[in-house]
Design goal:
This protein has 5 helices and 9 strands. It is an alpha+beta fold. The longest helix has 15 residues.
Amino acid sequence: MCGSAEAKKSTSLPDGFKLIDQDELSKVGYRHNSVRNARIRERKNNERYVGLGVIYSGELCYDTWVYIGLYVDPNTGIKVGKGEKMGVFLDSWAEPEFRRFGIHKAMVGARLALARRLGLNRLYVLVYSLNVGAIKAHRSYGAILVEKIRLTKVFKTTVRKKACEIESADWGLKAF
């Protein structure tokens, strides 16, 4: 599925980092991030979520998810995706001290390979327009912008005056 030399090169992690699957992900957990650990536990038992992680020196430093099917964001109500055999790349997280190592770019490739193994033929991703690094990583694998969504987040005590744009990118895996 993801057998080309280019794909293998692009999905390789830096030395010392190891890719783990969802079963290992739920066993390892983050040392200081109870919110992410709760999300991992919650998603572990839902067959629509498939997770991947990265460990370094035995500690979880990155997690990322593929959601299988039409996704409705619980915070915004935004519906993502159309058709059958589609998935959505969800909320990747790298612990701050492990950012800027190229892990996210490698994991975009790992998620694409996972999507192929799962038989998905179309993928979507939501990315905040200010997250230039994530946008570049996704576009380097052929993602194209299909929609910009204007979103104003309102928190209990803070209102953002500027709307955040979210880019919805799209991969047609058959053409990839």
